[in-house]
């Protein structure tokens, strides 16, 4: 048995791995594509994925991504249209026009005296930064 015939073909270039045969069962897999070897691999679990299976999964997810993109665009539109002053004005309008609020007038938040909303149109308005500076100046002179 010491001498083997010369026509024996060696199989040591082939190795069988029986424990590796796993399929990707990830819920939202992230694929890595090896263009040169034409292999698709799941970046989450490391499983080699059939390229057709990966393509089908991606095609199914297109609608999900489209809906997600549409939601993001709607949020962007809402943020672009958001104007805090309009929110306050709409709230004031609800209070002023409400059926249970008939014949009521708002009161000044500083002195508590009631006033007609029309008076707001006849008085000058100023920048909030100016108001903060003015308030800090008043507190400094009172101390």
Fold and architecture overview:
This protein is mainly alpha-helical. The protein has helices at 51-81, 84-97, 119-122, 128-142, and strands at 31-34, 39-42, 48-49. It has a 3-stranded antiparallel sheet. The longest helix is centred in the middle third of the chain and has 31 residues, at 51-81. It is rod-shaped.
Count of alpha/pi helices:
4
Largest sheet composition: 3 strands, antiparallel
- What is the residue-mean pLDDT, rounded to a whole number? 82
Percent of residues in β-strands: 5-15%
* Rounded radius of gyration (Å): 36 Å
Strand order of the largest sheet: 1-2-3
Separation, N- and C-terminal Cα atoms: 110 Å
Instruction: Return the structural class.
Output: mainly alpha
> What order do the helices and strands follow?
EEEHHHH
- List the uncertain runs: none
Q: Indicate the percent of residues in helices.
A: 40-55%
Which overall shape is indicated by the principal axes computed on the Cα atoms?
A: rod-shaped
Number of strands: 3
List its salient traits.
143 residues, mainly alpha, three-stranded antiparallel β-sheet, 3 strands, 7% strand
Tell me the layout of helices and strands.
Elements: E1 31-34, E2 39-42, E3 48-49, H1 51-81, H2 84-97, H3 119-122, H4 128-142
Antiparallel strand pairs: 1-2, 2-3
């Amino acid at each position: 048995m010491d001498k083997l015939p010369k026509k024996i073909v060696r199989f040591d270039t082939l190795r069988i791995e029986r424990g590796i045969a796993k399929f990707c069962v990830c819920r939202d897999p992230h694929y890595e594509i090896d263009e040169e070897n034409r292999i698709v691999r799941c970046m989450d679990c490391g499983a080699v994925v059939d390229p057709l299976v990966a393509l089908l999964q991606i095609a199914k997810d297109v609608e999900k991504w489209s809906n997600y993109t549409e939601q993001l665009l709607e949020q962007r539109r809402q943020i672009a249209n958001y104007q805090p002053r309009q929110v306050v004005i709409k709230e004031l309008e609800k209070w002023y026009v409400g059926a249970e609020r008939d014949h009521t007038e708002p009161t000044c938040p500083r002195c508590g005296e009631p006033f007609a909303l029309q008076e707001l149109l006849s008085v000058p308005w100023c920048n909030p930064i100016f108001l903060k500076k003015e308030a800090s100046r008043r507190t400094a002179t009172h101390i």
